[in-house]
Design brief:
With 120 residues, this protein is mainly beta. The strands form two sheets. It has a six-stranded mixed beta sheet. The chain has a four-stranded antiparallel beta sheet with strand order 1-3-8-7, with no helix packed on it.
């Protein structure tokens, strides 16, 4: 069955780095565009970043541009989100999902359980 499992979250001080991973199985990862989305406490889901199937193109929300880097390893069916210069407003649950843009990512039925990131 389809699985997306996020990991790597935790507590980090402002300005620090964190690297999230999303291990997948049960679907052909290498032909799917992949995205990361997040949900801050009391707020709606927010698109963070997307990467197309072959990894050659990435897009980012303005709020994370030049601080976050999305990548993927199709041989391992895994996506990554490298986060640097973290801010308190980056706190939230981070999910990986499918889709190449905000609309597709937020509407995708494929999503993991999420990993908590707390910047404090």
């Amino acid at each position: 069955h389809v699985q997306l499992v996020e990991s790597g979250g935790g507590l980090v001080q402002p300005g620090g780095p964190l690297r999230l991973s999303c291990a997948t199985s049960g679907f052909p990862f290498n032909v799917y565009d992949v995205s990361w989305i997040r949900q801050a406490p009391g707020k709606e889901l927010e698109w963070v970043a997307s990467i197309i199937a072959d990894g050659r193109d990435t897009t980012y929300a303005d709020s994370v541009k030049e601080r976050f880097t999305i990548s993927r390893d199709n041989a391992k069916s895994t996506s990554y989100l490298e986060m640097n210069s973290l801010k308190t407003e980056d706190t939230g649950v981070y999910y990986c999902t499918t889709g190449r843009n905000a609309i597709q990512a937020l509407e995708s039925p494929l999503r993991g359980e999420g990993t908590q990131v707390t910047v404090s």
